[in-house]
Amino acid sequence: MNTLTRPETDATTEAVPPAMSYLQLFVRFLKFGLLAWGGPVAQIGMLRSELVDEERWISSERFNKLLAVMQVLPGPEAHELCVHLGIRAKGRLGGVLAGLGFMLPGFLLMFALSWLYFQIDIAGTALGAAFLGMQAAVIALIVRAVHRIGEHILLDRWLWAIAIACALAAMGGVDFWITLPAGGLVYALLVLKHRALALLVTLAAVALATAVALWTAPTAKLVETVVQGQASVLLIFAAGLKAGLLTFGGAYTAIPFIRDDAVGRGWLTDGQFLDGLALSGVLPAPLIIFATFVGYAAGGPIGAVAMTAGIFLPAFAFSLIFYDRLEAVVDNKRLHAFLNGVAAGVVGLIGATTIDLARVTAERVPSLTAGISIFAAALAFLYFWKNKLNVVVVILAAGLAGWLVFPGQG
């Protein structure tokens, strides 16, 4: 029997993907999507093991450079890598098919769960009690994520200062479109040793935030009346797109932006928002797929598609449009400094959002002691059991605990 050998397994030869049809490419990444448990670290590890180490679609050195780029740019890194590798195999259409294949299982599962969730009245049922337990565990997931993301982003005192300032500003009602660009500019200027300009940008941001607050206060009622509960397809898509463009360092960074639109506009409650996060935690998909749940709450099936399309669009677009130039981002130190400052600000926003969600959850659980116990146990488990299924186990165990200690309280 003849055995086929790949000439590119030679270390001196350029690593290239094998020849395959578009259908074969789609099915290959669909398989990755079906096995996408455990968050981005496990997903990227799976891609590396099969496509870099075993099949040599791309060299390890180039894969590492691309991963560095994807971690700097907004969007889920694993999905962006799939798009990039699909382009490498079959051009831009291949990139679209690879990205769709990777996200499709999670989208379909979340779509089905969203339909089921909004068909059933879980209030006062055992299922409602289970979701209360899950909500406490979701707070633990976010706290763990803030720590994990922060230790990779908050690498010096200035980044810490930007994160804290953005968190305090968010608690004071200052919009992210003021704090995040200011954080990026300030840090870039500090890196370039322009401290006077950095101070000037800081003062300008404070002045702008003050002016917006004074202008907004008299019109807040009118804006609330016009916007509250309205969820056109375009508005849902725009909310997803905004979150997709501001997702730095992992899907958890999308939480404050999606919550601001979804809960702020009355599309769903904080409790339902946490339920959506809990459901996404048990699916083989990037956690950002919880946007499908939010879109469904806002606009039904069409809303689910619109929100999902918006949040994943940047992950497709960066590779599809800038495929040949992405690696140059690694060498652009000024852009790195700006994006690092923005990312630090996003960490601060997640921290502020976590405090808000924790307060809401504490008000909803019938026993604060039991809620804190579930939260503490979940957090300890996440820290000490480092396994790709730890999130799934934590969510399901917390649901069981909620069912046991909050009977009939959902």
TrEMBL record:
MF terms (GO), sorted A to Z: chromate transmembrane transporter activity
Organism: Serpentinimonas maccroryi
Lineage: superkingdom: Bacteria
Compartments (UniProt record): Cell membrane
Family membership noted in the UniProt record: Belongs to the chromate ion transporter (CHR) (TC 2.A.51) family.
Protein's UniProt name: Chromate transport protein ChrA
Protein's membrane topology: Multi-pass membrane protein
Residue intervals passing through the bilayer: 96-118, 124-146, 158-178, 198-220, 232-258, 278-297, 304-323, 335-355, 367-385, 391-408
Transmembrane helix among keywords: yes
Keywords of this entry: Cell membrane, Membrane, Transmembrane, Transmembrane helix
Pfam families (UniProt xref): Chromate_transp (PF02417)
Keyword Cytoplasm: no
NCBIfam families: 2A51 (TIGR00937)
Stored PANTHER family: CHROMATE ION TRANSPORTER (EUROFUNG)
InterPro entries linked: Chr_Tranpt_l_chain, Chromate_transpt
A Gene Ontology cellular-component term: plasma membrane
Major localisation: membrane
